[in-house]
Structures are given as C-alpha cells and as structure tokens.
Design brief:
427 residues; alpha/beta; FAD/NAD(P)-binding domain; Enolase-like, domain 1; five-stranded parallel β-sheet; 12 helices; globular
Length: 427
C-alpha cells in the first residue's frame, strides 16, 4: 500500500491518534493530517482542568512531541482549512485552492461551541472554551478579584468556575435549569455539584435566563454586565459561555454524506461513503453493545475510536464497542463516569456510599441491569463498573448499594438460561 494516500481532516486528538494507529498497524503509504488551527494536535481536557488551573505546563497538552510527525512520515499541515470534499474525484479542497487526492478519508472535525444568541454577545471579554487559544485567553482573565460570570452549568461551565475560584476570582454561575447538570444526573446527584460550588463561594443562580450582555460604561466595546430576564444586572469583567457544542458537519453535509446529530457511521466508523470515515466528537456511531446510534463528546472517544477507524481504512475487521467514559475534577471532587443512560429513560438510581461526604458510587439500572456508573472520590472501580454493564446481568439493588458487598457479588442468581433483553429499544 506504499502508493496509497490516507487523508485525515481535523488535527485534534482523534486525528493524531488515527495517524499513530495507521503507522502502528504497519501502513507504509502517505498519511496527511490537515488542521485549521496553528497548533500541532493537542488534548482538550487540560484546557478546562490542569492547564487552565495552572497545575499543568503548556507542553503537556500536546498529543505528540514536535518531531514525532516527521519521524513517522506524517505530513502534518496546520493552518490548513478544508473547504470541500469531491467524492467523485476522491479529493479534498483546501482554503488556499489546493486539491489533495485520497484513497481513504477520515473526518475528525470535532465540534464547535454554541454561540450565545443575545444582544451584546460579540463584546470583548465574552469568551468560549474549546481551543488552546481560548484557554490561554481565559487563563489570562482569571485573576484575583476579577468578576467572572459563567453562563451554563454543564461540565465546562463548572470546571471553569472551579478554576476561577482557585485563581481568586469572584464567580457567578447562571443556569436555566433548576440545578446544574440536572438533565444529565437527575436531582439527587445534581444537588451534590450545586452544594460543592456554593460551599466554595460560587454564587449559583438556577432557573434564570440571560436577556442581554451590556457594555462597560467606560469601554463600550467590552462587556460590563449580564442582564437577566427579570431585569437583574450582574457586573462582569469576564463572561464565559458554556452552553454546549454542535458537531462540525458542514463538510460532510456539503458532499451529501448522511448526517444526523453528527456524521452517521456504522460500528466500524464508516460513513454512507465506504471510503470516508469519521471519529471523535463529530461521529454519530452505531454502538453494538448499546444497540443504537450514539455521539459522545468526550475525550475517551477521541482517544480510542481512531484505532478502529485505522483498522477499517486498512480493510481489517474492527468494531468500536467501548463504553462511553468521561471524568471531571472540581475542587476536591474527582469523578469518573462509565456507560450510558438516556436523560428521559427514567432509569433506577442506586447510590453506594454517602453523597453528603461526596464519596460514593452511583449506578443507573434499566430493567434491573446496570447501564451506567459514576464513582465520586472512590477510585479503582472503573473496571468493575464496566464489567457489570457489559455482563448485562440483573443485579440486586440492595446488594449493589451495600458497601459491605463486593461489586463482583451483586448479581441476582440465575434461575434459567434466558438471554438478557436487548437494549436496542431504549429511547
């Protein structure tokens, strides 16, 4: 395959790991990695965690050392935007007018922050957090005494609030729902995060709506206040908007790939065009264990999906069946989440430990079987949680919630040999 060219569009973690996987698997053809940003590929979790908080150096965010790409014959082209895909000619078109032929094409174009749709959102001092440059700007703005307003109490918003408090800033978090993370975690566990932030001095305001961002009276180009729907005005030096992201599907849509909340791909990460694949935040992939299409906006997918995509590009058999996984660090709380539960599924919640002390494991059960688990300040349990989910065995909720019962001994004893029900019909 030495005369074959594989092109990867999107030079983030997923793109870099795909290039690495192709070389690890012995591909000796050309690998071209195209990225619109000026930086070589980097990881995103540190941008709202260690790097933003100042506990990690800038060089630690990069996926590979600077010389890795040349050493492994990966043609990394930064500052190179791809503007179109010509499926008939098997070519990608770049912003400088260039055309690059591909035999296989992998799209790892990621996602972009949702913009705040209110007047004043274009004022300076209104920041988003997605890129390394975004993190640099935010890091410079988080200083002692700075008045920081965070709009959106999701994972990015809460991690930023924690970093801002650590920097000595005054922090207000605004959330439309009744609690932070309510749709993701439900009221009992959402309260854990609400209490965590209020205990650390965050002014948490839930059930509110932002009407507009108002300019600073002395600098009309800069933000000076956030006005709520009820007329309340909050003085702000910095506004961080964290209201979610949308997958970057414009390229895929323009060349008529199947798109629905991301690029639709099968379990091998192959799109509706057999020569085009997708991985990472942009991929809405069929998950064979969960029996449904699933797009996951977390680091673990960007880390692990590329190996499957590389195998498929090489014509080898591979399915992406890893369970979703993500983590967060806020103040003295560390959390890992494994599995998947739909917000509208009404799954049963079982808590093992004490939410008041913030040392517990939460399990979500569907039809008596564990479908997701979240460990908070309890460590080395990710694998047992994953095993419970993958076994699809019915568990005894009382034993599952009992700290004295090992997680390996919570299953309901089998009385027959019927296969567990499929989860493909879950909402």
């Amino acid at each position: 395959m030495s005369d074959t060219t594989f092109v990867i569009v999107g030079a983030g973690l997923a793109g870099a790991k795909a290039a690495e996987a192709l070389r690890t698997e012995g591909f000796d053809g050309d690998v071209v990695l195209l990225g619109a940003e000026p930086h070589r590929p980097y990881e995103r979790p540190p941008l709202s965690k260690g790097y933003l908080q100042g506990s990690a150096e800038r060089d630690t965010v990069f996926v590979h050392p600077q010389g890795w790409y040349a050493e492994h014959r990966v043609d990394l082209r930064v500052d190179t935007a791809v503007t179109a895909i010509d499926r008939g000619a098997h070519e990608v078109l770049t912003g400088d007018g260039g055309r690059l032929r591909y035999d296989k094409l992998l799209l790892t174009t990621g996602a972009a922050p949702r913009r705040l749709p209110v007047p004043g959102a274009d004022l300076s001092g209104v920041l988003y957090l997605r890129s390394l440059d975004d993190s640099d700007r935010l890091k410079a703005a988080l200083r002692p005494g700075a008045r920081v307003v965070v709009i959106g109490a999701g994972w990015i918003g809460l991690e930023t609030a924690a970093a801002a408090r650590a920097a000595g800033a005054e922090v207000t978090v605004l959330e439309h729902a009744a609690l932070p993370l309510l749709r993701v975690l439900g009221p009992q566990l959402a309260r854990v995060f609400a209490d965590l932030h209020t205990e650390h001095g965050v002014d948490l305001r839930c059930g509110v709506t932002v009407r507009e961002l108002r300019p600073d009276p002395t600098d009309h180009a800069a933000v000076g206040a956030v006005q709520l729907a009820d007329g309340t005005e909050l003085v702000a030096d910095v506004v961080l908007v964290g209201i979610g992201v949308t997958p970057n599907v414009d390229l895929a849509r323009s060349c008529h790939l199947d798109v629905d909340n991301g690029i639709l791909v099968d379990r091998r990460l192959v799109s509706s065009d057999s020569d085009i694949l997708a991985a990472g935040d942009v991929a809405n992939a069929f998950h064979p264990t969960l029996g449904r299409q699933l797009r996951v906006e977390h680091w673990a997918n960007a880390l692990h999906q590329p190996a499957v995509a590389a195998a498929a590009m090489l014509g080898r058999s591979a399915d992406y069946d890893r369970l979703p996984y993500f983590f967060t660090d806020q103040y003295d709380l560390g959390m890992e989440y494994t599995g998947y539960t739909h917000p509208d599924s009404n799954d049963q919640l079982v808590v093992r430990g004490d939410t008041a002390t913030r040392e517990f494991i939460a399990f979500w059960l569907h039809d008596g079987r564990v479908v997701a688990g979240m460990n908070v300040n309890v460590w080395d349990v990710t694998e047992p949680i994953r095993a419970l989910i993958e076994s699809a065995e019915e568990v005894d909720p009382a034993r599952l919630g009992d700290l004295d019962v090992p997680l390996t001994d919570v299953a309901v004893p089998r009385t027959g040999h019927a296969a567990p029900p499929s989860r493909s019909g879950r909402a």
